[in-house]
Amino acid sequence: MPATASPDIAYIEEISPGSGRRVAPRAHLDSDSPVLDLCGDWRFRLYPSAGEADAAASDPGFDDSGWDAIDVPSHWVLRGDGRWGRPAYTNVKYPFPLDPPHVPDANPTGDHRRRFVLPPDWLAGGRVWLRFDGLESLGRVWLNGHEVGVVRGSRLRQELDVTDQVRAGGNVLVVRVHQWSAMSYVEDQDQWWLPGIFREVTLLHRPDAGLDDVWLRADRDPATGRGTLTVELSCPPEAYPVRVRCPELGLEAELRDAAAAHALDVGPVEPWSADVPRLYEVVVANAAETVTVRTGFRRVEVVGDAWLVNGRRLRLRGVNRHDFDPIEGRVFDAPKVREAMLLMKRHNLNAIRTSHYPPHPVLLDLADELGFWVIDECDLETHGFETNGWVGNPSDDPDWREVYLDRAHRMVERDKNHPCIIAWSLGNESGQGGNLAAMATWIRRRDPGRPVHYENDHTDRYVDVVSRMYATVEELVELTRTRPGRPIIECEYVHAMGNGAGGIATYEATFDAHPALHGGFVWEWRDHGILTATADGTPFHAYGGDFGEVFHDGSFVCDGMVLADGTPTPMLAEYAAVVTPIKVVLAAEGVTVDNRRHDGDTGDLTFGWVHEVDGRAVASGVLAVPPVAAGDSTSAPLPTLDRGAAGEHWLTVTAALADRTPWAPAGHVVTTAQLPLGVVEPGASAAPVAAPEPAVPSDDGGYALGEARFDRWGRLLSVGPLPALGGEVTLWRAPTENDSLATRGSYELADPAETMGLGVDGPSSAERWREAGLDRLQPRLVALVPGPDGLTTRYLLAAANSAQHLTVEQRWRWSAGTLQLDVDVQPSAGWTVTWPRVGVHLRLPAGYAEASWFGTGPGENYADSRVAARVGRFSAAVDDLTVRYAVPQESGHREALRELRLAGQGLPSFSVTTTPVAGARPGFVVARHSAEEWTAARHPHELPRSHGVHLYLDLAQHGLGSRSCGPDVRPEHALWPRPVAASVLFRVGHVDRADG
Ligand code: IPT
Question: What's the pLDDT tens digit per position in 570-579?
């Protein structure tokens, strides 16, 4: 008989907001009333199914000495080394049959038990409440053998009144947590399934006549600058009088009764904004309790197509953020989260969408304090119903109405005091239906001061803000026409999975051109890789399938701008550069500074300039830029520069913080701009050009050219003492996840010149590249000419059964100790796929460890991701030139190389110098593995031992795009087969020795 048939466990499948002595939802308050922290060591026992749980465990006298120990908060699947099961990852799909509200018999059930001693004075008066901040997915709670409630809503707070069950001295609390419940159907977010009590458990002593709930609505009239503080209290009549004090504002009021609307005029106040997060501390107190609220005065309005805060249009430079840690899962660690939020601020992010549930409450405190616009999203997602055409979707099923409403209540009531929250979001990907409408209606009544957001409502029935995810810029522009008079955002865009997203700047330009577009939220902040280890102990970050799940969504859980361990990916720098609120534009006529902050002039910034010739500073100074108010711009003349020296001249201007702020040290660079000032050719006095040397056949059937040796096919064997093998042209790059996934249509199947919008659906780029055989091209030598001035080869590259080919001509010359390569690549007619790259591939000894270059940097850059790159001299360890993505893939390309030098102990230095051909120079990638090795590995630890350093000199590379979840590389950034050429000089220098 199925375990779920037992009446005793029917509650698991009950469609209910929760039961027992539930306390009405109320604000998260900083109160002086006593609390008892129940986190720490609990006794723990896991059962494979709900029906097997020991009925006697709730008995206070039960002997749990044989049980294991577990720490609360935690997820049991991240404890116990697999004894207690493992995490599992699915995105949209449910990991159990779509059979609502039923759940599988195999329903892991964890009994948590602990004893606590009640502080002796707590029974003298008042009430005792038991609070759960997060528990996945359902908990049945007993105190001293009495069932006190069933807690539902994994990421929502629930409080139970246990006054009648708590007793003097020792108490026994038992929480039976079931991994699956009816609630799992409405908690189908794209994340790991992680059961357990993962947020705090707290016992609260509520004084008689206490201030159970306090809501401070702090409004500021943008026209007058005057603030109004509306105080709403939930407390018994005997709680009055209540005093409200804000010494900073000279506010001192006494509220005598509950009936009056307590709107207090506080006079002129400074506004709160994400840029200038001005908080005021307000103390609300009566004889029984003192509550402290940090409030911020601001007005949020939707007026026509404008979403205004304090009368100014918002520009959201946002990110979707989950509560996630690679070791602790959804357990919140405030210091670590604070660090992450500082990193966000330092990258010009100003907004967070709490995808897809209310975060730990402290996140919102930090957002108030550091300054972020927040869309607070409800714990709701029923995405898996989409698979079945939304049949039976709880969102439109009246049986679920109370569950939906309760979730909205608990989010809004808990978080309502936060100035950072500028919208309430009903949830994510839950289709449409009356229950969503009911949530929206309730929220609007309860809090008219904030708009309602819900992306899935494409006909604007329950929303105040039009929202889309992963729309192309063309679709967004179309929305400005089809949804006139409404503000529009992208609640998810530029999917940060693997290498990418490219194309961020195209979105930014589109937002700039259409005021109704208020910006968006990157998907997402962090990879959700879970730190684990292989059988032999090699640590790695796991994704779907790595814990043996048979039904999973692979690496789709790793799609952040920072890796699971918090390491920023290049996209973070690109995003920061693109969305910078301080736009510095350099032109021959002067510098323009455009202050696009919401608040605050540029008086906090120093505009430093440096004049570089061939990447070396020759002069520097500070520009005199008068403070520019938010929304304004100004211009200033360029500094007077001596442009006479031979070389490439650049002017670089940085806007840096003059003083430290709560989120960055003094000197932190907010934005950088560059202006090329031209190239001054050296005078005629340069050394006479040495005559080239002839190429001659060598004894082994190959050729000698100066100190360079070639094999019989004209492939480079060595240069002096250095084996530098190959030098042949390749088209292959290890597909990025944007190359290999195809969640949306591609531009590339249609005529690139004509296609706008999404193009048509089709296979991924990687599939098409493989189909065209770009990973298995075969050479055929057409000509090899050793001549008096060098060696010329011409060969065709083509794949089996393919009529398309490319012709490669390589001309090698040797003179004055330097090997020169001119390479021309021409496609035949008939190509119908893009190329990943056109690269000259050189294999060098493994000992090269350091690279320094004059070119673009410091980070990688590609055709559609190059705003963060500047031209200059940089250096980095070879190991740091590529990115350790959860799935190995192409990374580390840097365009427009001038000079590169590789060094390693015991090796001669190896340098590459380029000269422009038709204005273009090749880019480069230096990596410990080849494109083929990157392609074959599914995790970094699966890469083979490195056999050498691979240098790719890329005549061209395809853009990155965002097609893992969003649009493909745009036509203008795609590498369509076309003739490309490069000229490079190689020089092998002296051997580097440790002793110098
Ligand atoms: C969208 C989800 O809202 C988000 O949770 C995440 O899954 C993201 O995609 C992709 O990583 S839904 C998608 C089907 C557009």
Answer: 999 999 999 9
